[in-house]
Specification:
Number of strands: 5
Helix content: 40-55%
Strand content: 5-15%
Strand order of the largest sheet: 2-3-1-4-5
Largest sheet: 5 strands, parallel
Order of helices and strands: EHEHHHHEEHHEH
Distance between the termini: 15 Å
Structural class: alpha/beta
CATH class: Alpha Beta
Number of helices: 8
CATH topology: Rossmann fold
């Protein structure tokens, strides 16, 4: 079976993990596997864990651009990076210019190793120019901001940064760059959707891929 990739996108705490779990269950019940490529996992590996020279060099350039001292008391971590980019639109823009091409390259490499059904998951698939890695529909999750805040209770990120992340992602997703010919499926996850809803969307995904 050739690789078939559909997208799952939605803001932080919108229920992407729950949706993935539901679709894994549904695919499995039909004797099908569903691999997942998590863009955030890829991003974290590149920014914090990879020892590849290309990623070490990216981190050096990023630290210099954002005026962060990795050897300083705060170190180099997601909280420090988030405080820098979510408080300054110019730094966010530069961050995306530097990091997104590296993420795209790594995702392409990951997808090449897979076959069968694949879900590509990220909060900003379309906005970060990654949706064209999918040859199937993009499932767009939407969620009430108040529900997002409740789901994020107990997060290790500062409350102010969480609020800025929610606002930033919502602003981008309110004005998405839709592409002609690409199918979008909307799913409101403010109240936990029933299993039937996930079944219906599964049927839409498969029908689109089998056209």
């Amino acid at each position: 079976m050739n690789r078939r990739v559909f997208g799952i996108t939605g803001p932080i705490a919108s229920g992407k993990s729950r949706a993935l779990a539901e679709w894994r269950r549904i695919f499995s019940a039909r004797g099908l596997g569903l691999a997942t490529v998590d863009v955030d996992e890829t991003r974290r590996r590149i920014l914090y864990h990879s020892t590849e020279e290309r990623h070490l060099d990216l981190r050096r350039r990023l630290a210099a651009t954002l005026a962060i001292d990795p050897a300083g008391p705060a170190g180099w971590n997601g909280t420090v990076l988030g405080e820098a980019i979510f408080a300054d639109p110019a730094k966010m823009s530069r961050y995306r210019e530097l990091v997104n091409p590296a993420i795209r390259e790594a995702l392409g490499e990951a997808l090449e190793r897979l076959s069968g059904w694949v879900a590509l998951e990220w909060a900003l698939l379309e906005e970060d120019g990654l949706a064209d890695l999918c040859d199937g529909p993009i499932v767009m999750l939407d969620c009430d901001p108040a529900v997002q805040q409740r789901r994020l209770a107990g997060s290790d990120l500062p409350a102010g940064q969480l609020a800025r992340r929610i606002a930033y992602q919502r602003e981008l997703q309110d004005n998405p760059t839709k592409r002609a010919g690409r199918k979008y499926i909307r799913l409101d996850t403010s109240h936990d959707p029933s299993a039937d809803v996930y079944e219906r969307i599964y049927e839409e995904i498969v029908a689109d891929q089998n056209r």
